[in-house]
Amino acid sequence: MEFTIRDAEASDASAIHDIYGYYVDNTFITFTEVNPPVSEYEQSIVNTKLRYPYIVLCDETGVVIGMAYAGQIRHHDAYRFSVESTIYLSPDAPKKQGLGRMLYSELENRLSAMGYKFMYGVLTDDNYASIGLHESMGFEKVGHFTDIGYKFKTLKGIVWYRKQIGDLNDMTLHI
Length: 175
Prior knowledge:
By secondary structure, the protein is an alpha+beta fold. Helix content is 28%, strand content 32%.
């Protein structure tokens, strides 16, 4: 099976809505409790792409089976060289094929080319698959907040992972 990665378009919003919705409704992987409407995803894709990559992974038939994007980590200007990264694969995506690594690597490459210096991943502290992906890709654990999110009548913690993706001697963004 062949897979392709391309820039997300507003027309991908329905597929992204459905992928993310699975995690909203069934897991602690996101602390979002209500999946936003497709129109919010359309706007998010457009707005995100003004400053950051927003990409999708498609199967050989062109069906979107994953997405990854980056965004502002905090609203203060001094954080401009750091991003929070997000990745989700469809629950129906083939397993153990390196699809998450492929998609996340492409996001990293695009962010680095744009001049960003650090990627941060914020993960539920018992999301071992995502923790494993981040660690295998060279991210280091830099923080742990226990019992910070409450979903499905359960308290969960988060861990922060960070990876340097750019030269700190060149503090120039190319966006």
